[in-house]
Amino acid sequence: MYRIILKYLYYVSYMMDPQLVVKRLLEYDPNIVEIVQFGSSVYAPEHARDLDLLVITEKMKEYSGYLDAVADFNADILVFEVGKIPKEDLLRGVLGSFRLLHGDGRFLLEYARQLGDPSFEEARASLRAALDYFELSKRTDNNLVKERHIKEAFDAPFHAARIASMVYLSTEVGRWGLIRRELEEPYRTAFNSFVEILHIKYFYNGEYPREGLEEEFNKWFKKVEEYISSLESRVRSR
After folding, report:
1. How many structural domains are present in the chain?
2. pLDDT tens, position by position, 36-90
3. Which of 15, 160, 16 is nearest to 99 (CA)?
4. Of 114, 134, 154, which closes a domain?
5. Which domain covers residue 221, as residue numbers?
6. Which residues make beta-bridge pairs with 75?
7. Do 199 and 180 share a domain, yes or no?
8. What domain of life is recorded for the organism (predicted)?
9. Residues 53, 37 share a domain
C-alpha cells in the first residue's frame, strides 16, 4: 500500500509539473513567446486538480497539436497569437492569479493595458449577479446544478470586492497578491477573508454551510456591499 501511495504521489506531481508542460509545448511550437499558468494551480496549489495555461505565440499552429503536447498532463490550454486580445472576463481571470512560466511577460502586460478601467458600477454589477445566482439555486431540483449556482453566488461577491479594490488602488491589474499588499487596514483583512472564505473555501472547495445557507449568503453579501461603499466613499473624499 505504501508503495502504491508513493507511486500515485509521483504520478500526480509529474502530471502537474508546469516545466515539463512548457518543454512539450516548446517542442511543438518554438515560436511561443509566453506561457502563463493561472487559476487554481497558482492560488490554491494544494487543492488544484489541473493546470490552466495561457499560451501566446507568434503564429498559431494547429490547435490539436497543442492539445497533443499536453495530453499526458492534467492541463487545460488557451492559445492566442500575438496581437489577438483575449476577452475581458477571461483576461481579468488570468490576471487575478498567475505565474509566468516562459517569456518576459511583456505580452501579458500589454493585454492588461488593453483592459478598460474598472468601476464601482462594475463591482456592483457583479454583486447583483450574486443575487441572481442564489435565486437560480432555489429554482432547481437538480443537486449538481444547484451546487453550481450556490458556488457562483458566493464567488460573485469576491469578484465584486476585487474590482472595487482595483478602482480604489487605481490599478488595471487585479492580481490578488498585489491587492493584498497595497490595501491598508481594515481593507486588507476584509479582502483576505473574501479570498479565503468566499473564493477558496466556498467556491473552489464547495465547503459552504448546508444549514443556514441563505443567512450565510446574506451575511457575506452585506459585508461586500459595505466594503464597496466604504472604498467608494474614500475615493470620493480624496
Report:
1. 2
2. 998 877 776 766 667 889 999 999 999 999 999 988 877 889 999 998 988 877 8
3. 16
4. 114
5. 120-236
6. 51
7. yes
8. Archaea
9. yes
